[in-house]
Amino acid sequence: MLMEGNNTLLLRGNAFYLKSLFPEDVAENYIQWLKNPTINEFLVVRQAPPTLEKQKHYVASFDHRTNFIFGIYVNQQDQLIGSQTLRICPKNKKGVFGYFVGDRQYWGTTAALTSCYLLLEFAFMNLNLYRVEGGALKNNIRSLFNFKKLGFTQESVQREAFLINGSFTDCFYFGILKKEWAMHRTKFLSFGINE
Questions:
Q1: Most buried of 6, 7, 50, 117, CB within 10 angstroms?
Q2: E strands of 127-178, at which residues?
Q3: Model confidence over 172-191: pLDDT tens digits?
Q4: 17 by DSSP, 3-state: which?
């Protein structure tokens, strides 16, 4: 982890990196991702896609101390391709995370997996969290794959919890403990962490 000016966190991997996202980083292309039905299919935001002003306000609500929002960037171009959040419950030493890759050019690459790896390293190694959790809808095959690949355990299912394209669908919830991450993290060292 690297700290840049203005309390900006930078978590750098070999091909992609995470950097604190601020309102001035949110541009019209980011809003277009959130409005695109192919991209937002599995995001809560699909029900009411935000305006640029509302999204900037949402990004400003993260304090970067207990609630983090990061942009997912491509190393070579310093290009924003998505975002990731981590909300912490300090009392229980746990975090809840979510992510999306909005630039479809990077779907099917290691962008999402790398950003999740970087976030888990930050959560467990820097913030000393005990547990991280997240969820994915039943049809979100990419996210389900990523949870399993990263070593998460499926802990519950909310049956028919979300209305997607006129049909109710299940949501799967996953968790990983710090000691479990310690066993799985070595599989991803090729993604790189530059401290």
A1: 117
A2: 131-137, 153-164, 167-177
A3: 999 999 999 999 998 887 66
A4: strand
Structural domain for 179, as ranges: 2-191
Q: For residues 171 and 136, is the Cβ–Cβ distance under 8 A?
A: yes
Number of domains the chain is built from: 1
Measured CA to CA, the distance from residue 114 to residue 100 in angstroms comes to 12
Contact 94, 131 (CB under 8 A): yes
Coil vs helix vs strand at 147: helix
Give exposure, 106-141, as e/b (b: 16+ Cβ within 10 Å): beeebbbbbbbbbbbbbbbbebebebbbbbbbbebe
CA distance 194 to 189: 11
Q: Rounded CA gap, 106 and 55, in Å? A: 22
Q: How far apart, in Å, are the Cα atoms of 194 and each of 47, 121, 129, 183, 189?
A: 38, 11, 20, 20, 11
Helix 141-149, helix 111-121: angle, nearest 10: 40
Could you read off the pLDDT of 43-94 as tens digits, one per residue?
777 777 788 999 999 999 999 999 999 999 999 888 999 999 999 999 999 9
Residue positions counted in the chain? 195
